[in-house]
UniProtKB/TrEMBL annotation:
This is Ig-like domain-containing protein. InterPro entries: Ig-like_dom (IPR007110), Ig-like_dom_sf (IPR036179), Ig-like_fold (IPR013783), Ig_I-set (IPR013098), Ig_sub (IPR003599), Ig_sub2 (IPR003598). Gene3D superfamilies: Immunoglobulins. It comes from Electrophorus electricus. It holds the Pfam family I-set. GO terms for biological process: cell-cell adhesion. Keywords: Disulfide bond, Immunoglobulin domain, Repeat.
Amino acid sequence: MGQDNGRGRVTVTPEGTLVIRQVSVYDRGRYKCVASNAAGVDSVTMRLQVVAAPPNILEEKRQLLRANTGQGVWMPCTAQGDPQPTSHWVLFGGTVVRPPKTDSKVSVFPNGTLHMKNLDVSDSGKYECIATSSTGSERRVVTLSVKKIETAPQIVETSDWRTELEYGANIRFDCEAAGEPKPKILWRLPSNDMIAASNERYLMHVNGSLDVRDVKLADAGEYVCMARNAAGDESKVYKLDIDGNPPVINGYYQNRTVLKDTAAKYSRKMIDCKAEGKPPPKITWIMPGNIFLSAPYFGSRINVHYNGTLEIRNVRPTDTAEFICMAQNDGGEAVMVVQLEVTSQLMRPIFKNPFNERLLTQLGKTTVLNCSADGQPPPNILWTLPNGTQYQIGNDGTFNIKCLVLIILCGLPSCH
């Protein structure tokens, strides 16, 4: 049997032959064999040379690699040699990675290629591939330069451009923008005010969305989302409609109405102020002396009822003045000015002339219609034509018609 020197790879046969298995470069050198017996000693020396190829990396040993932020790069490292070398990478920062390795940022494949994804400027630096074997080592250094690319904002998530809401509802306008560097979001409100953060009225989310809570008529209009960075800007316009109406007093569709009214001394006077609108308007009476009374109000002589009616008890001559009813909601305000005249005695209008309910005239003739009336205070005369047109004229009630053929009814119902 052969002898084993304990290394496992080297054995000696009974005939004295030295066997070396899996020769490496470390086995090179001089080997001496000594033969001896009773007759004497003889020896022979042999020199062993091991032929091997050191590691060699096929790619260039130094390389400058440029990339932009967000991109990925591949760094091959193909190593050859005899015996076959193993390779590993030393990343920028000193981390050692060996194949196979895969994660969300760095991968190393069995062939030695390094793959990096979603690059950032902070990834710039030197990356070293080292191939080693029993015969030596070889290095390849890749210098990675990552440049930050600026891109103009793009609004990638948008709400419906037009929305109609009920009064008091809530709404969110989405406005998430992509770009490099990360865009800053600003909002321009219907009032033309600019906001870049939340306040007591509006809530801005981290992604740029805007919440408007408990909307009022004043919140209706255009909301403009503006995304800005160093590379440019982009904007998106949203239209908000609120289902509501400004106040209307007693059916007068104007902001300000002036009326004349009378009251008899020592009587009770009721002045209506029925206000309609959405949301329901708040009614306030402005009394002589600039005294404000909000509905409801109940005093010893003056009352303002829930429906807005002003009640004056025991009317005095000093009540000859202007009484102003003001109705307000979020949509605006309407004002009715009542010029009240206090008289000693009231007399209903009475026509002076016997009136004819039917009057015939001829084509081309000038016709005078007399409809004068007495009363206290002096009544206003209102004529209504067959086509519905109305004319308010002086106390004498005279109305001239030229070049017409008309049949006119003049009576109490149409002359008040």
